[in-house]
Every structure is written in C-alpha cells, then in structure tokens.
From TrEMBL:
Provenance organism: Lactovum miscens
Protein name (record): Rgg/GadR/MutR family transcriptional activator
SMART domains: HTH_XRE
Residue span(s) of domain HTH cro/C1-type: 28-62
Pfam families assigned to the protein according to its UniProt record, in alphabetical order: HTH_3, Rgg_C
MF-aspect GO terms: DNA binding
Domain of life, per lineage: Bacteria
C-alpha cells in the first residue's frame, strides 16, 4: 500500500512538473518525500493531503488514480515506461521490453505484444534499437483502426509508436485526438496524454511539410486551454513552433521561443527541464554564431 501510494504521488507530481523542493513546502523534508515516493516509509493522511494541496491535486482525483492504478496493470506499465524514458534509464526500459516479449511468447496475448512494440518504438525513436518492421507497424495500425473509442491505453500506444508509422496513417489516426474534448477535460492524466499526442502529431506533420495540419493543431491547443496561464499548453505550443521555425530555417525565431521555455521552467523550479532546454538553447545559438 505504502509503495503504491508513493509511486502514484510521484507520477502525478512529475506530470504536473513540480520539483521535490516546491512540493514539500513546510510539510516534509525533501528526503522524507523521496523515501515516501520510493515506498520506503509512510506518511500521515494529514501530510499527504497537504502535499496534494501543494501540487494543486484534489483528494478525489488522487483517490481515483489510486483505484485505477490497482485495477489496470497497463496504466502501471506505462507509468513505468514514462518514468524510465524521462530519466534516461534505457537499460531498464530494454529489460522491461524483453519481459513483455517473453510474456507474449508464454501466452500469445495481443496486449503483451503491443506493450513490447510500444517499448521498441520508444527505443527506436531515441535511436537505441531497431525500427519497427512493416509487420509490427501493421499490428499496431490494425489495432488502433479497429478501436471505436480510444482510451488511455490507445493514446499511450499511439504516442509511443507515432514516429515509426507512415505519415498517411499518422494523419488519419492523429485526428482521433481532436474528437476527444470530453476525455481531454475530465482527468489530468488524460489531458497530459492528449497534449503529448498533439505535440507528437504536430512535429511529425512539420517533418512531412503538412503545415496546414500543424496550424490546425496549434489552433486546437489554443481553444482547449483552461486559462491563459496554463503553462503546459504554452510550452507545447512553443515546442511545436520551435520545430516549425527550425524546419523552415527561421533560427532566430526558434531561439526566441526556446528562450521563453527556459525562463518558464526556471520560474517553476523544474531543474531537469530547465537544464535540458538550456543546453538545447546553447546548441541552437551556435548555429547563428
């Protein structure tokens, strides 16, 4: 129970881009929170509620995530996949992929093969493994085409393998994102998945010179902002614009957008993202020196 509570809390905190320092406030020490998130020690309900308040998460949302975590193994799997990718632990991610492949060999269940292909797709995106074969891409595409109502699993699968698909299929399947306004607004985790899918779809559209689709996605993001201050949507829009400007040779415009992102993450105290984008900004500036 303690391990699950800590793991779920950590997942939500990272989704909302809160650093440990900003999260603890006056509730706990940073080391106490780290141990709780690793499942090494418990904290009182009062302190848990205070931490949730610090990251702007209603108790009801946390309870729903806890319930879902315990009844849907695929959510737990993709939480682990996302964490390993975010922290750059690709050795463990490869091991997890091998486990899913072995499960498929044991029971020949489609879900285990899809899980393996999702991990293989992520590794291929980072150029750390072989690309998906034609047959493997067909398995994913056929599955996604035949699901009438996408849920979280389908969004995870789409996000993990989009870079491996042919663009006509990406364009067709990507439109599913724009039909999910109710799903987009209901639960923060769904919203994050949709935003990630929109960003991935936009970047692939740019690389295929489909700028009409790119601008349609940017407009859709504008329409679905909760308010003008929602920084996640702002960051995603800027990341899309950076890709667009770099692709079309407008490096100075890309530098301006990336500078804004660096300032945003510095303001919110997200050290990992701040350092990542600061390094990218330095590399981009070298192109105009």
């Amino acid at each position: 129970m303690v391990k699950e509570l800590g793991e779920i809390f950590k997942t939500i905190r990272q989704e909302k881009d809160f650093s440990i320092r900003k999260t603890v406030g006056n509730v706990l020490s940073k080391s106490q929170l780290s141990r709780f998130e690793r499942g090494e020690n418990d904290i009182s309900a009062k302190k848990l509620f205070a931490l949730l308040e610090n990251i702007n998460v209603p108790i009801e949302d946390f309870a729903e995530r806890f319930h879902e975590f315990n009844i849907d193994p695929s959510k737990k799997l993709f939480n682990t996949i996302g964490y390993l990718e975010q922290t750059g632990d690709f050795t463990e991610l490869k091991k997890l992929g091998e486990e899913q492949l072995n499960l498929f060999y044991d029971d020949f269940k489609l879900i285990n093969r899809l899980n393996y292909l999702a991990i293989k797709g992520i590794l291929a995106t980072h150029e750390l493994g072989k690309k998906l074969t034609y047959e493997e891409k067909r398995i994913i595409i056929d599955y996604l085409y035949n699901i009438l109502e996408w849920q979280q699993y389908e969004l995870h699968l789409f996000n993990a393998t989009i870079s491996q698909m042919d663009y006509p299929n990406v364009r067709f399947l990507g439109k599913e994102i724009f039909h999910r306004e109710y799903f987009f607004k209901d639960i923060p985790e769904n919203r994050d998945l949709i935003l990630r899918g929109a960003r991935n779809f936009a970047i692939i559209s740019i690389r295929n010179n489909d700028f009409e689709t790119t601008y349609a996605i940017l407009n859709w993001l504008d329409e679905n902002r909760k308010d003008e201050s929602e920084f996640k949507v702002r960051v995603i829009q800027k990341l899309i614009l950076i890709e667009l400007y770099e692709h079309t040779g407008k490096i100075q415009a890309a530098i301006k957008e990336l500078s804004d992102i660096v300032l945003i993450y510095e303001k919110f105290g997200n050290t990992h993202s701040y350092e990542q984008y600061k390094k990218e900004l330095e590399e981009l500036r070298k192109q105009v020196q």
